[in-house]
Amino acid sequence: MALSLGVDTGGTYTDAVLIRDEREVIASAKSLTTRHDLAEGIGKAVEAVLAQAEVDPGEIVLASLSTTLATNALVEGQGGRVALILIGFKEDDLAKHGLLDALAGDPAIVLAGGHNHAGDQKTPMDEETLRQWLEAHGREVSGYAVAAQFATRNPAHEQRAMEMVQQIAERPVSCSHHLSSKLNGPKRAMTAVLNARLIGMIDRLISRAEARLGELGVTAPLMVVRGDGALISAGFARERPIETILSGPAASIVGARWMTGAQDALVSDIGGTTTDVAVLRDGRPAIDPDGARVGPYRTMVEAVAMRTTGLGGDSEVHFISEGLKGGVTLGPRRVLPVSLVAMDAPEVVHKALDQQMRSATPGEYDARFVRAVPGLRADGLAPREATLLERIGDEVHPLGDVLRTRMEIKALRRLVERGLVQVAGVTPSDASHVLGNVDAWDREAAEKALSLFGRRRTGSGNMLAPDPKDMARIIVDQLTEQTVLALLETAFAEEEADFGLPPEQLARHVLMQRGLDGHRGLVRLDAGLNQPVIGLGASAPSYYPAVGKRLGCQMELPTHAGVANAVGAVVGRVTIRRSGEVSAPAEGRFRVHLEDGPKDFAEAEEALSLLETHLSALAQKEAVQAGAEGIRVTVLRDLKTAEAEGREVFIEGTITVEASGRPRIAAE
Question: d(Cα 62, Cα 44) in Å, to the nearest integer?
């Protein structure tokens, strides 16, 4: 019996699963994610799943991890201090392409050098200036990013800069041509900067996770999920941590495919903070052709084409007073459910809720609480923020007892953005407790919180919904509506047909909405999704049947939908893709662009064959390094030609090689 362990660190929970013989889930467990040290939550989840399955940890032959760490770090502006070496570009390219924003005050130097489109040297690299700069400032940063103009056509200047950094500064280097073979130098530079920033953080996570698993007796090699759903070895992830962005969502799609066997479907994964929607085609997740976007940054990392909406079980519920009926909207920010914070501080929460319910009029801060996150450093705070954090201390407080002035609301928001403080309020999770769909936390606290929320007055002067169950149904109905819109937006974005409007407008268009209602008048309108939806996430069984009914589509809810990310973390394959180009700089000359510089040939087929052989060997070698065995190689040629004077002329050729295999497992 071969056992595989999958672990996923999400925003709220860390999940662990054990899979036997790559066929069935034999145990699953959850633990609250410990943001100050993810390895703690990983250890608790793995301990729980081992105890549930009653197996010897030594029987585990493969362990794999999907993590939101890289994604969250980039969104929140975290990571190490880095330096950018930009070769052959202009000084104003730093600001023009968003590199200054990404550097956020970290140093950069722009040097003469670079190559042209054909791979010929444009200007010699200014090594002396780089040497002086490295000798003066080289050790002030944790890592370097290097990007040279047309480095994918000739990487000589990037390679030389890397050698100098390693010799003089003795720091890790991220070269842009190692991370992408595509043209677009500024975008490659951005990718290299973000990769360099993440190296230390991902290295610490992997080291701590490996150590914690070792303490529990799990000695199997650790794999990590990449942003396209493939697996890579821990060592490979340490070198290219940028490739782990969108790791969690990618794992969920792989898990959905494994659990359902679906070939074509939409996959919707609802978590505590977000809903991630992607498309499964021919059994594989669709890849974003423009590269993964994380927060404000567009990278050149291959990752799943994912639309993320700030909608989850822990989304903040906002009151809409406009109109006679009023209503609510959800997200995009996450708050702690009142029913959850009541588990940690029941006396404080119930005392405050009871006191607020005795008041004749609703209060601005009714059913809202605040607490500090333990174990995090609070360096560099402004005086007002530091004072507020000190006032909050280690206890849970009603929000109205903590805020003394309106000015402190902004200070509180900054503390929340930095992850130092958490605010609790009414959420869909509380509504589910009131309706009896969930019984994990304090239902009585949820009922009181929804009673307080429903006392607010609409435009007609009436209360929104004084009965907590009515209020709960309004919240859950709104979650259904916003989920439907998220699915429609994704479907329209991936449609081959052009409807002439952006997906966001099409999803909300009056004809679309009347079609979903099944309008029957002089005109008959029907609308819905033409593909099944696979609903994932622990709360999917509570919310998604209504979504499927609204969209008139099949809604699949796998048995282990709540731990799909952890399942996907361990059932994927190791896949390495490498691309290269052959250009035609002159009549009768065909140029192959290689790591050690361009090579010219007299025949196009000769150049293409050499490139194919080179890329195949490179992809297979990297697949082995990434932890694959039983490797299979496939090759795709994309040739561009033109008609000239009655004959076909070669313009450019791109070859993409994919090496894919099973994860290498430990000897049983």
Answer: 18
